[in-house]
């Protein structure tokens, strides 16, 4: 049974959920959702932004980088019905322009700043490597003082080990003593002198093309576009996923673009011979495709990129009995992944 999806962009009102009754009974009765041959078919978990205005509000302008004033556009998300923005800490709303992910405003634009001192309120010693369990530390970069007036400042860092990353909301900045405090839960290992971090989700740090910031209180998005945003296609991610399959058998998704969600694009839970074939899977906050459990499920011939984490994740089979699940990933082109979760 073939269900052909006609040419067009379909902004889904919610996750396309499939369960046991939506699949085929056997290989001969397989159900295939197929994009119209030779045409572009998009299933999007986002909402298009068509109205953009240059920022003229003096209260906003005074908080912008002086060199960026006159170049920042705003789009009212609340006015188009978006009220759930998620968290900058993960799983939050993202902006995409002309099929590419933009990025939350950050400082420094490249690289990191360092922890220059610890208060040692709760010292920790891990096999001779010393630090502090409390997320309160010194910095030297004067630029950080400007974040004190930010509504929702965040930092992302490798706080103790270079392979263990975590995002924190900034709970306080003492500009005189140059002390930053982050909100719990604190990093598992603590904080160590000389470790590195950057600030993000900062209105004052929109200073290069491609950066944006969402004022969650006002429902307003501010953007420094790399090209004329009013002539391009801009959208924000709204849905958690594009497709979610649970206990589905003998079903194929083929020949479509699946994009624009806050978490994983396609999730399969305990499916049987469910396939993603010849699709473009892109522009998501987490993984491209995740297969958990089930038998003989696969991803083949897909282009996967622009994800916040990895491309394909498969967790199946019975380790205790060494029974294989025969799930597979075959001939996929995976690149430009781990935009957000690098380790």
Structure in a nutshell:
It contains 1 helix and 36 strands. It is mainly β and 343 residues long.
Give the total of beta strands.
36
| Share of residues in strands | 35-45%
Q: Cα distance, first to last residue?
A: 41 Å
Q: Structural class, from helix and strand content?
A: mainly beta
**Rg calculated over all Cα atoms:** 23 Å
Mean pLDDT: 97
Supply the number of structural domains. 3
Please give the share of residues in helix: under 10%
What's the main sheet like? 8 strands, antiparallel
Q: Uncertain runs with pLDDT below 50, 5 residues or more?
A: none
How would you describe this structure to a colleague?
It is built from one helix and 36 strands. It has 343 residues and is mainly β. It has three domains: 141 residues; 91 residues, no CATH class; 88 residues. Strands 12, 13, 14, 17, 18, 19, 20 and 21 form an eight-stranded antiparallel β-sheet that branches. A six-stranded parallel β-sheet has the order 1-4-26-29-32-35, with no helix packed on it. The mean pLDDT is 97.
